[in-house]
Amino acid sequence: MLHEPAINGLVFSIKDISVRKDAELKLEQEHALLRAVLDLNPSMIYAKDTEGRLTISNRSFQRQFGYSSEEDMRGRTAYEVFLTQAAEGQEHGSHEMADKLHRQDLHVMESGLPLEDLEIQGLRESDTNRWYRTNKYPLRDVRGEIVGLLGITRDITDRKEYEMRLEYQALHAPLTGLPNRRFLLNTITAEIAKSLDKHTKLAMLSAIWIFLKASTIRTATTSAINA
Asked: Between 157-171 and 181-198, two packed helices, what is the crossing angle to 10 degrees?
């Protein structure tokens, strides 16, 4: 518009924004550091909003469910994530697992109380032999209001299998592999507790077997023949 006769000149305004740019750079560096911490962590880490939709997910969580980036998972619910990866004929089991996890999330957000050290066997039908430990915490804003949930899930299969081997060895004879006295006592205790909870009666039949030595049997047989 410089050709307009009413315009006689230009006015420039220059402002030093170094402080703002430094703050933006620091924020970007902190975000990159947080992203690296999330993606390098072997645990599956994720965050959800109050509607149960994913807002944050790390690389371990993405790989577990077959996604390649956080953008692909953002906005999805547990039902969408599980049913997308469900094999043919396994949709019902995947829906049940998603529903179970969603109800846990809602409970944490509604109560404001964390859910810690929850052990789950298999997240999907294809990995029922895997064990996971989950911790869930309510996320709060600056005013203290709950705005979502943070979840951390770790694969504990190796440790769980080691614990199960120790438990088996403690409850079975090392030579025969048969259940020992401790196994019997644990079983009786568990059945008594179950009967008390259900207000039912419990009966136990104890059989005593008398084993005779082979030599004694041979002696008795020989005596009978001679007689």
From this structure: 110
